[in-house]
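Task card 7
Instruction: Convert sequence to structure tokens.
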Amino acid sequence: AVVDRLAPRPAVVSRMRWSSVFRISHRIVDRYGDGRVFVAGDAAHIHPPTGAQGMNTGIQDACNLAWKLALVLGGEAGPALLACYDAERRPIGEEVVGRTVRHAHQGVQADPDDPGTVMLREAQLLVNYRGGPLAGPPYGPPDAPQPGDRAPDCGGLTTALATFPLRLLDVLRGRTGHVLILYGPDTTGPAEASAAAAGGAAGTAPVTVTVLPREAPRSDADAAAASAPPVTAPAASSVAAYRDAAGEFARLYRPDGPTGFLVRPDGHLAARFPLGDTAQAVAAYHAALWGVAVARP
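Output:
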């Protein structure tokens, strides 16, 4: 009866040699942090194994907490930043616990969403922190990636020296700090403004990556920037330039004209803003890391 109820298609069980009773247990802590003590993974939440959500949820707990701890311990953010760990991750834990319990009792097919959405959710690709304490205001098309969403990967980025197109995640690989992505035909001014706006702190001053639109004319300055090797030092003055040769960046990020994107160390968007507001957006986010309330652009 259990197999009939939970199997995705009719199944026959025969010659059973061993069976046992599995009791569903599910719990979640009241808070993910208390003073200097933080919990993650199974210490924070336990739930049925349906959907194999436990390991990914625990790893994402650790990723969310690690970069915040690093900034606070390094004196590059205020202690209030650590409170964002509970604010961002506990709602995710509650959703995972509730969903896995529901699926354990009713099966994955009981999920009301379409199969594609179910697969993305089970892969935890829909996890977002929209409306959280570190997410900037929305900007651009409502269905475009917004602050709090996972920064999408895209392909087709080229430079004058690259012999094959690069993916955005390959460009960002190995960077442990924030990354400022500036999309537009002329990003020199915003790139320079971001350094002062970040307050000069090495851990929070973002590496700047510029993405030129596919149709943008290639000037001598563009060619020189595009031929520079990718930057590795987390300094706001460091700039690596790429061209959106395949148009994938524009298709996935849907910039509304020249647009800036600030990416957190855990790969989620912290801010999305008009390119002309780069300094204000970076300053507002930097203030949020210190727990200072400021008006966002």
